[in-house]
Amino acid sequence: MALDKKGYTEPTPIQEQAIPHILEGKDIFGCAQTGTGKTAAFALPILQLLDAKRSNQRQGPGTVKALILAPTRELVSQISENFTAYGKNLGISHCIIFGGVSQVNQVNNLRRGVDVIVATPGRLLDLMNQGYVKLNNIEHFVLDEADRMLDMGFINDIKKIITKIPAKRQTLFFSATAAPAIMKLANTILVNPVSVAVNPVSSTTTLVEQSVYYVKKENKRGLLKHVLSSNNIEHALVFTRTKHGADKVVKDLATLGIAAAAIHGNKSQGARERALKGFKNRTIRILVATDIASRGIDVDKLSHVINYEIPEQAETYVHRIGRTGRAGASGVAMSFCAKEEMNYLKDINKLIKKNIEVVSTHPFN
């Protein structure tokens, strides 16, 4: 079985809560962070429903029945990988649609006919306007990471896409937060939804050991070298606030002979995919990412997350460190805090309702 191959035996809380309702055809409002098993929570029941319908109706492929919208190319690719793995024995076809690459392959896939589309809103709308995509037979519509969609300014694209799909459909809406703008959007597209929630964004998993290092901004480079060597860190995801900052950290690590790559919005799709692949197969030891680019980074058994710079939004900290300590494994999150970032740290402590442990024994204190 495909699920046995993936090593899935027990459902995660979001899967346990959502899957039975999805199979009953209900709309879902899911409040869940990345790393909670949310992709399987919608992919598995959608595949099951499509498979059952096809068996009953002897329907041929080629009519798009399910549409999944996600905010980033990385997340689209990751969801697609899951559809491939879970649907291995079902013969249900899917394709990915995102910008930053030539549309030729995407158009060819659409012409051959697919059952499921996984897409970012901008490129999907573009191909719809060119007449390559018809969404009038959609039965299942998933909006994943809706909060990030709004942050990235996709709201108008989403609204335009929704006008082209049937009003009679099942809608599954997932967001890491239930902010007013999110609820407003959810209320316009969901019909009598069932609410499911796990790990609200204010909570950090107990499996992640958190610590903070006070350090002058100019000494962060030295501190990073110190923690990587003194803690024998083989594999770490490092976060910066800016693209420029990410590139600078990669350069600094290169001078130390440490294999690192950056992933952010200015990188080409090919470069981002190579960096992610290298990080997953561990030919790259350190992946340096900005927050928007990091959505969709899902790496098995990631042991360390390092906040080279403290995020301005406390919720972002929770998202960042949620990349480790997944699926029952433990993880470590370290944060480097300069004097000018103290207010951000205060906000984080307030949000997670505890003070992160301070490491005072380091050479740059």
What does this molecule look like?
β10 (260-263), α12 (269-280) and β11 form a beta-alpha-beta unit. By secondary structure, this protein is of the alpha/beta class. The longest helix is centred in the first third of the chain and has 20 residues, at 38-57. The chain is 41% helix and 17% strand. It has helices at 2-5, 13-23, 38-57, 73-86, 104-112, 121-129, 146-151, 155-162, 180-189, 220-230, 243-255, 269-280, 291-294, 314-321, 342-352; strands at residues 28-31, 66-69, 94-97, 116-119, 140-143, 170-175, 194-197, 208-214, 236-239, 260-263, 286-289, 304-307, 331-337, 357-358. The strands form 2 sheets. Strands 3-4-2-5-6-1-7 form a 7-stranded parallel β-sheet, sandwiched between helices. A 7-stranded parallel β-sheet has the order 10-11-9-12-13-8-14, with helices on both faces. α2 (13-23) packs parallel to α3 and α6 packs across α8. The model is unreliable at 1-7 (pLDDT under 50). It has 2 domains: 2-197, 3-Layer(aba) Sandwich (Rossmann fold); 208-358, P-loop containing nucleotide triphosphate hydrolases (Rossmann fold, 3-Layer(aba) Sandwich), CATH 3.40.50.300.
Percentage of residues in helical conformation: 40-55%
Mean pLDDT: 86
Assess the beta-strand content as a share of residues: 15-25%
- The CATH C-level name of the largest domain is Alpha Beta
Task: Report the end-to-end length measured between terminal Cα atoms.
Answer: 52 Å
Low-confidence segments: 1-7
Quick one: biggest sheet? 7 strands, parallel
Query: What is the domain tally?
Result: 2
CATH fold group of the largest domain: Rossmann fold
Rg, nearest Å: 21 Å
Count of DSSP-assigned helices: 15
Describe the global form. globular
CATH architecture of the largest domain: 3-Layer(aba) Sandwich
| Helix-strand string | HHEHEHEHEHEHHEHEEHEHEHEHEHEHE
Widest sheet: strand ordering: 3-4-2-5-6-1-7
CATH superfamily of the largest domain: P-loop containing nucleotide triphosphate hydrolases
| Tally of strands | 14
